């Protein structure tokens, strides 16, 4: 038998703690309509719950949270050390919070007996108003205590105890109606009153705005709400909301206020109480321009409505991928063997040559490779020798496969500022395919020449000014730009940024009969099959070791030409970019005029020419006349000299079948120029 004198004394507090581990009897449910009040609270209704973790962290207290509540259902915050004796280390001291919000604290050492919650709170430092949910309203010296908006009773149900009847009208002087007790002062801590809506929906979040509290607290609450919503992201540094297949930027204070109210209520403190209001514009603009808050949102590096291959060549799954930042709103597809649906779709289009058809298929394949070529892929320039050949239909098929629906078209405007706003409006509405339909110059600006469009094709991040906004719309450049035009006059920079798909038909296109009268409808109906066939081309190329092709393109910085060319060549599509040289010659009006100048030099008895003499001959032939009358003779000579340097070594066809090569002849007095004419029969030059 154990000697009782050898048994150590056990503190009563420890016995209480052990007893707490025993299961507590379940409390009977409150009667219907009874107010929700904590036990032994004297009927006091709490309005705010202390966020213990936030309070301890703000006070610099080390702690851990037990993974499971204790037998009474309390959350246990184990302190790294006791606030009264640092030698009392984990797990001797703790703060506990019951499900109803009530707090208790304890240290199991005899030396700390008698120190309960109030003593712990005083030793650690009392919580601030912002450590509660909802935050407590600060009491101004000499002022009235602010109160939270009263909880509303269920429609048609009795008002909660102590609440005025909806029909009661306070008499003059602010006294409550007869039989209604005055509102009690809110307690310091306790359970929240927001326990859900009468129809059982979960409670709404509440964002609190109090001029007595730091603005940073409100900014953090706004961000916490947006992050918790799980539909708000950061795209190119801007807040966007994604809902299904729609993505929309939030650029203004009014838009942010509306989005926030979709997910939470905003309570604004005033001198005489608090009110539910939309997010004030000053706070909304502060958040929109805050350098740190938007950075807390998950980043979207690419938003896509078409299945895409990730940088490590996986087909991205639908939804958000935190590892890559890709948000795929696309339905999953299975790679398919063959190209039966693709061949059926393209069978009746009158492509000018095999290269034009292959280029078009290359653009479709590029849609699946978006993460690999952000800002590093060409536009598509559809050309035709006459209207009615299907250029716009081919552009809309691209939109259907990429976005799941036809896209609105834009009209080319030589006023770049207005054109930029139009492009920005389309990007803002979430389209990733932008079609500039029937592009043509006007009046004194006959050439299609847009600095805005040219930079938009190659920029990593699209950025457009918006009509009626001081902010810009930004997005990663995963977009596909398409231009349709008949015999266009296109700037050299735009030609070099485009892949050309030419259509050609002799005769009246209206008299053609089609077995597939609605290609766009076919693309919509068979979108999954078409995308599966394109994915099959990629998969077979990868299975073969991902062979690259020799494809000359200005977009080879990230390997667009060799990769897409390799996929097409392995899939049986020949002559990728094979029409690039001929298209550049046809579409570049400066090159066409220089060809006329070379033809004149070939038939002229003079052997060599200075830049000034070339300029004089060009003026007599009325070439390069876009700037005639605006430049001095010296300026014209300089400009022609620059053009001559550009075309040195190039060969131009002559009308009789010969070719003339433009050459530079070094001379001690400066550069001289000549042409060498080659006969196609004997290969000799004059």
Automatic annotation (TrEMBL):
Residues 25-38, 151-163, 178-190 have a biased composition (Pro residues). Residues 22-43, 125-206 are annotated as: Disordered. Residues 141-150 have a biased composition (Basic residues). It comes from the Bacteria. Residues 164-177 have a biased composition (Low complexity). This is SF3 helicase domain-containing protein. It comes from Urbifossiella limnaea.
């Amino acid at each position: 038998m154990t000697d009782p004198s050898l048994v150590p004394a056990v503190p009563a507090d420890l016995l209480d703690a052990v007893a707490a581990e025993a299961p507590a009897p379940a409390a009977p449910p409150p009667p219907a309509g009874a107010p929700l009040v904590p036990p032994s609270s004297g009927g006091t209704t709490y309005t705010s719950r202390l966020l213990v973790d936030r309070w301890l962290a703000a006070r610099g207290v080390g702690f851990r949270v037990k993974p499971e509540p204790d037998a009474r259902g309390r959350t246990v915050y184990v302190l790294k050390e006791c606030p009264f004796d640092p030698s009392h280390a984990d797990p001797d001291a703790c703060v506990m919070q019951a499900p109803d919000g009530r707090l208790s604290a304890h240290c199991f050492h005899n030396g700390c007996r008698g120190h309960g919650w109030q003593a712990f709170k005083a030793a650690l430092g009392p919580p601030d108003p912002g450590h509660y949910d909802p935050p407590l309203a600060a009491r101004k010296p000499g002022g009235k205590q602010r109160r939270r908006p009263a909880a509303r009773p269920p429609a048609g149900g009795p008002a909660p105890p102590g609440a005025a009847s909806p029909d009661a009208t306070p008499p003059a002087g602010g006294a409550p109606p007869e039989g209604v007790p005055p509102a009690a002062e809110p307690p310091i801590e306790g359970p929240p009153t927001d326990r859900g809506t009468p129809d059982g929906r979960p409670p709404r979040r509440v964002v609190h705005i109090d001029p007595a509290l730091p603005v940073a607290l409100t900014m953090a609450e706004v961000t916490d709400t947006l992050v918790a919503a799980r539909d708000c992201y950061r795209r190119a540094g801007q807040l966007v909301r994604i809902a299904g297949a729609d993505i929309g930027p939030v650029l203004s204070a009014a838009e942010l206020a509306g989005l926030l109210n979709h997910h939470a209520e905003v309570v604004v403190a005033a001198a005489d109480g608090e009110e539910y209001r939309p997010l004030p514009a000053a706070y909304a603009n502060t958040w929109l321009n805050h350098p740190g808050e938007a950075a807390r949102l998950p980043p979207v590096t690419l938003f896509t409505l078409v299945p895409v291959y990730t940088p490590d060549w996986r087909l991205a799954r639908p939804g958000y991928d935190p590892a890559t930042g890709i948000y795929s709103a696309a339905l999953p597809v299975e790679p398919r063997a063959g190209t039966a649906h693709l061949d059926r779709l393209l069978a009746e289009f009158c492509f000018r040559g095999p290269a034009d058809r292959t280029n078009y298929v290359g653009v479709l394949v590029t849609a699946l490779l978006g993460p690999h070529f952000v800002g590093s892929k060409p536009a598509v320039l559809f050309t035709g020798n006459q209207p009615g050949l299907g250029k716009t239909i081919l552009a809309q098929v691209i939109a259907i496969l990429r976005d799941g629906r036809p896209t609105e078209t834009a009209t080319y405007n030589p006023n770049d500022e207005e054109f930029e706003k139009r492009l920005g409006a389309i990007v803002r509405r979430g389209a990733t395919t932008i079609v500039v339909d029937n592009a043509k110059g006007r009046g004194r600006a006959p050439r299609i020449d847009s600095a805005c469009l040219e930079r938009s094709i190659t920029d990593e991040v699209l950025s457009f000014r918006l009509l009626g906004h001081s902010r810009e719309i930004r997005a990663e450049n995963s977009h596909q730009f398409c231009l349709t035009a008949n015999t266009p006059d296109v700037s050299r920079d735009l030609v070099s940024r485009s892949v050309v798909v030419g259509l050609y038909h002799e005769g009246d296109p209206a008299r053609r009969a089609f077995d597939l009268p609605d290609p766009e409808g076919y693309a919509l109906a068979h979108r999954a099959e078409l995308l599966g066939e394109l994915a099959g081309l990629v998969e077979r190329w990868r299975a073969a070791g991902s062979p690259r092709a020799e494809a000359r393109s200005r977009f080879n910085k990230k390997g667009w030409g060799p990769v897409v060319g390799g996929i097409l060549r392995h899939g049986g599509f020949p002559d990728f970019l094979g029409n690039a040289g001929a298209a550049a010659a046809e579409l570049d009006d400066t090159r066409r005029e220089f060809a006329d100048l070379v033809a004149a030099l070939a038939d002229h008895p003079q052997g060599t020419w200075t830049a000034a003499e070339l300029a004089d001959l060009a003026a007599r032939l009325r070439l390069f006349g876009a700037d005639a009358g605006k430049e001095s003779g010296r300026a014209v000579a300089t400009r022609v000299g620059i053009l001559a340097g550009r075309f040195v070594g190039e060969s131009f066809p002559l009308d009789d079948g010969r070719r003339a090569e433009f050459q530079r002849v070094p001379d001690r007095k400066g550069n001289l120029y000549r042409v060498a004419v080659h006969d196609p029969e004997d290969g000799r030059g004059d």
